[in-house]
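PROTOCOL LOG
Step 1. Enter all chains and additional molecules of the complex.
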Amino acid sequence: MATKLTRRSFAKLTGSVPLTASATQVAAQTSSSKPADPSPDERARETEQKMTDDERFSLLISLMGAVAAVGVPRDKRIPEGVSMSAGYTPGVPRLGIPALQSSDASMGVTNPGYRPNDKGATAFPASIAVGASFNPQLAHEGGAAIGREARMRGFNIMLAGGINLTRDPRNGRNYEYYSEDPWVSAVFGAEAVNGIQSEGVISTLKHYVLNCNETNRHWLDAIIDPAALRESDLLAFQIAIERSQPGAIMSGYNKVNGTYASGNSHLLNDVLKGAWGYKGYAMSDWGAVPAWDYALSGLDQESGIQLDVMQWGAEAFTDRLRAAYARGKFPKERLSDMVRRILRSAYAIGIDRWGPAPTLDMAKHNEIALEISRQGIVLLKNDGVLPVATGGKLKIAVIGGHAQEGIICGTGSGAVLPVGGFAGVVKIGGPGIMGGGRNMFLIAPSPLAELTKLLPDAKFEFDPGYTPAEAALLARRSDLVIAFGIRVEGEGFDNADLSLPWGQDAVIDAVANTNPNTVVVLETGNPASMPWRGKVRAIVQAWYPGQAGSQAIAEVLTGTVNPSGRLPITFPLDLAQTPRPGLPGLGTPWGTPITIRYDEGAEVGYRWYAQKNQKPMYAFGHGLSYASFSYRELEVQGGETVTAAFIVTNTGARAGTDVPQVYLTAVNGDERLRLLGFGRIALQPNESKRVSVEADPRLLARFDGGAGRWRIAAGRYRVAVGRSAQDLALSADVQLSARLFGV
Ligand code: GLC
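Step 2. Run joint prediction.
Step 3. Record the structure below.
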């Protein structure tokens, strides 16, 4: 079963000192009577020494299962009877090494066509919704459930743990990531991995690193200042690795500062394995290995090797690597190191010693999905029209978003086929390898059905939002309008702008002009431009809310659930506010080399808007409640790091949950905005509780590239508590001494 976070560890999780490697290593429980069990490293060394070279090379690749959507036929090297999935690596039965079978991913066990007879898996909410819950325990529980559903299918690797920072609000894969903030990304990615691995299934963290746009991703060169990278995307990976010890890290498709991530020796050898001492293995993304010598740059396994043939014309770690080995260009020690890393992760997570398959409680998994959706929904705007009073005989118009059929999910390798299949699939298409799978997937039940359950006395009518004029006719004769805005986003694509597709903005504008009692519910993976924002009375960000999302949406709209979600990504007023109003390469033919300069460096998201004195549409950390909260008595202590303690009071008339955030706002008078941590606190009306947040000292520091260390400057650090990055309530100063530490 999933390890339940204790209150103390949960308190630590929401914002404080990282669990150091020593703290998380379970000391070998040894008694004087028997020798300690060999460590994973010792077992890996022992097994590897017994292997033949053929067996060693067999572990260095994975074969993608047959899937028509991507045009991959069955590879004869996958034995008959093996269940198809994202990756298959033959084991070494004589040495007790099981075959390695990997599946996607963060929202559940996917099946884009691998297994015609698979009845479907739990379709969990998008990772961005998990991040919006600001409840790491939910990431853990969701991960554990996914781990059980993977294990039940015999899959011992989950390609989950997407923690790229949501740097660009157009990035089609942001729904698969947690936040623009490195701390939130790390804490949630780590808990998802911990949940999965608690079930004896290896998880990845991905996509290492700076895979923050999808446009021409295989030919994208991501340029960034190396120290800034350490303070942002790499910091997310560093902290997440410390907190979860993922069995594998997956490198991304893109180049970083001119060198492909999968063959980037600085990132893989110097940073990941050198400075951080990572002991697991680095696998590539699927079709990301153009050359055998990536093995010399730190890559340990070539994934989905058929896609390298499609992308680069040849497999890398089969014949070509064998030939280099025969020529003495690929040393035996490196071959043994690659194998040992893979074996070590297998032993550390225990995929070689599975007991009986776990019993699956799919109703329980649905409850977890429901709770994530409930806590991830963000109430962006509400002038009091919400919650809709139950028991009333209102005439309610539900408009657009296929809300009579279901909710939507993201596309690409993360899309999960739910139990019973999709309620509808509408092809969208597009260029590149992912165009074939770019569809609008609808998951039942529908928001309309769930609203009808909770408002049985209301009179509902549905309009598809096919035209503004038609929708306005229904709006005109309704007491309340609930308009849905949806945008299908996913792998392989960046949105060209922040508008809603299919003319939805015009429809919402028309109904709001006709009936001011309009509430909008958004199902998107990213911010939307919302040109009608001033005309509607409430806006609910539901993200891709998973298979129980319709119920959660209805519960929030009717007040059965008091919304507690907060934005893990800033909603800008428009793209002009962002670091790159024009996205380089957007719209160029698939295959065009492009360069994106991430000149904002570590000033990602809320940090950027603060630095540029921009006021976004809705700030990072923003989210309304049907209650209200106040903060008082902030105490800040210094030392090796900063600890902030304060009291939260529910000043509202109903129970609710607040997510107070603690920020660094200035150092020696110079503005520098960094989230240091957050709390998540449930309070009854008039109830108060004390919250304490201890910052990871790296969030207070700058990375000194010359020294390869973190540097805290001496001086005055201003710390604030607030409801969002732009709504700070209390602040206090603390003195810190100069310090050089860590790596
Ligand atoms: C994809 C994705 C990666 C996924 C892998 C296997 O293209 O980039 O996230 O895990 O291939 O499907």
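Step 4. Note key features.
The domain at 38-353 is CATH 3.20.20.300 (TIM Barrel).
The two ends are 34 Å apart (CA to CA).
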